[in-house]
Amino acid sequence: MPKAPAGTLYRGRDGMWSWVAHRVTGVLIFFFLLVHVLDTSLVRVSPEAYNSVIGAYKNPIMGLAEAGLVAAIVFHAFDGIRIILIDFWAKGPKYQRLMFWVAIALFVVTMAGFLPRHLMHVFGGQG
Amino acid sequence: MSAQTGSAATIEDPGAGYRRRKTTRGNFELYGWVFMRASGVVLLLLVFGHLFVNLFAGEGIKAIDFGFVAGKWASPFWQIWDLLMLWLAMIHGTNGVRTIINDYAERDGVRLFLKLALYAAFVVVVVCGTLVIFTFDPCPANSPANLLPSFCTP
């Protein structure tokens, strides 16, 4: 098995970890997408079938999983914009580290807006 | 490194344009690379809009039921929105997982098996989702009216 060369530009630090996180979140989102299309397809079976399955999405454990899913999507989206800017913006590679932290900041702001409201819907009695 | 060792006299035409590859196997990977970026930008808008309307606005997840979905898909706007999102996300995600399989599955047989499973899942989910969007009936007969959107009972 060929060994990876030591000490490349991307080893360690934010460049590598954002790449790892992009892959992990991407795979998570993909597998959810497969399930999500199939569960939504139950609207074609009957209103009762769809409502019973979507009901499972409303319990607190699934509510927390949805928060995790949204977090994965938001990170993947903002990190994806960073990747596009690195590729197409002339100064992208120069500012890749700064853009990583901008993406993290946007992620925090977006989740701060989403989480309280979502958790209220999940855990609040009347929503 | 195209110059053969031992025949140093053959120097390539310095005026000839630079070509990265001598043998071409098509530009599939280039188009895939471009597609990931182009579809990524569109998906950001489509998915954030989807999440906002379904999880954030109104009562969020609590409000989602058959009536909610039927109300959305009664409008061609959301049909096209969801169709576009389905196709772009499935191609984007399948290409991403294909890249990951190519990176980590080193044995030829395992790689082939995983990619065949991936492409099978792609076909099943895209065909199923597309059919559902276009053959969906928001007011199925013999269903209790309280489960249906209000426009089903005039």
Short description:
The complex is a heterodimer of chains A (127) and B (154). In chain A, 75% of the residues lie in helices and 0% in strands.
Measured by residues with Cβ under 8 Å of the partner chain's Cβ, the largest interface is: A-B, 39 and 43 residues
Query: CATH architecture of chain A, please?
Result: Up-down Bundle
Specify the overall morphology of chain B.
Answer: elongated
Our count of domains of chain A comes out at 1
CATH superfamily label of chain B: Fumarate reductase/succinate dehydrogenase, transmembrane subunit
Proportion of helical residues of chain B: 55-70%
Termini separation of chain A: 55 Å
Biggest β-sheet of chain A, characterized?
A: none
Q: Cα-atom Rg of chain B, whole angstroms?
A: 25 Å
Structural class by helix and strand composition of chain A: mainly alpha
- Mean of pLDDT of chain A: 89
Q: How many β strands of chain B by DSSP?
A: 0
Span between termini of chain B? 76 Å
Strand content of chain B: under 5%
CATH homologous superfamily classification of chain A? Fumarate reductase/succinate dehydrogenase, transmembrane subunit
Count of helical stretches of chain A: 4
What CATH calls the topology of chain A is 3 helical TM bundles of succinate and fumarate reductases
Low-confidence stretches of chain B: none
Overall description:
The complex is a heterodimer of chains A (127) and B (154). With 127 residues, chain A is mostly helical. Chain A has four helices and no strands. Chain A has one domain (15-123): 3 helical TM bundles of succinate and fumarate reductases. In chain A, helix 1 (13-40) packs across helix 3 and helix 3 runs antiparallel to helix 4 (96-123). The longest helix of chain A is centred in the middle third of the chain and has 29 residues, at 60-88. The radius of gyration of chain A is 19 Å and the shape is elongated. The mean pLDDT of chain A is 89. In chain B, helix 1 (28-56) crosses helix 3. The radius of gyration of chain B is 25 Å and the shape is elongated. The chains are: A mainly alpha (127), B mainly alpha (154). At the A-B interface, helix 1, helix 2, helix 3 and helix 4 of A face helix 1, helix 2, helix 3 and helix 4 of B.
